[in-house]
Design goal:
InterPro entries: FTHF_cligase, FTHF_cligase-like_sf, NagB/RpiA_transferase-like. It holds the Pfam family 5-FTHF_cyc-lig. Its EC number is 6.3.3.2. With 195 residues, the chain is of the alpha/beta class. It has one domain: Rossmann fold (3-Layer(aba) Sandwich), CATH 3.40.50. It contains 4 helices and 12 strands, in the order H-H-E-H-E-E-E-E-E-E-E-E-H-E-E-E. It starts with a helix and ends in a 6-residue tail after the last strand.
Length: 195
């Protein structure tokens, strides 16, 4: 089996496990994530942080994002521009939301486009080394690569439930590793880049 085929298999298995979490339990687990990371990540007021609004059975990061906004974080969420590109539009409190592609919602085209310094990264599977499997389109890998080409080095925090961990993610040359993972069990660091 090729790495791509194995990733597809692991993606399907772990997303099915995530989908099987009852809605009320998923809500409780999302609140646990906010409790674990609400004050655990150090950042200065004005720091740009990309989160995401949940689709399908993803964790709901809105409680965590609200806490970080209260600490002075400048929030943004992804918007899909085309099949290859996402940008991060500023999420201002009370702004109207609209469809932004791939089933997501976020601010409209008039919102400021920001370069995140901290990124909350959705995923389908992860391992203990900080390797992740995304949803298969490569949007985040390309977005992170573009930020790095600008000389930026965003801190990457994967967002998942414990059931999405696998023994090993097959690494490919284009893959970008996480700095940390946040699950309902807590925040686990893979490098020393995150405060």
């Amino acid at each position: 089996m090729t790495p791509k085929e194995l990733k597809a298999q692991l993606r399907a298995e772990r997303l099915a496990a995530r989908d099987a979490i009852p809605t009320d339990l998923r809500t409780a687990k999302s609140l646990d994530m906010a409790a674990h990371a609400g004050d655990a990540i150090a950042f200065a007021p004005g720091t740009t942080i990309s989160g995401f609004l949940p689709i399908r059975s993803e964790a709901d990061l809105q409680p965590l994002m609200a806490r970080w906004r209260g600490r002075g974080g400048r929030l943004c969420v992804p918007a899909i521009i085309d099949k290859q590109t996402i940008v991060f539009r500023e999420l201002v409190h009370g702004a109207a939301l609209r469809s932004t592609g791939f089933g997501t919602v976020g601010p409209g085209e008039d919102a400021a486009i920001l370069d995140p310094e901290i990124m909350l990264v959705p995923l389908s599977a992860f391992d203990s080394r900080g390797h992740r499997i995304g949803y298969g389109a490569g949007h985040y890998d390309r977005a992170i690569d573009r930020l790095r080409q600008k000389g930026l080095s965003p801190k990457l925090i994967g967002i998942a439930f414990d059931c999405q961990e696998v023994a090993e993610v097959p690494a490919e040359p284009h893959d970008i590793s996480l700095d940390a993972i946040l699950t309902e069990s807590g925040l686990r660091h893979f490098t020393s880049r995150i405060g």
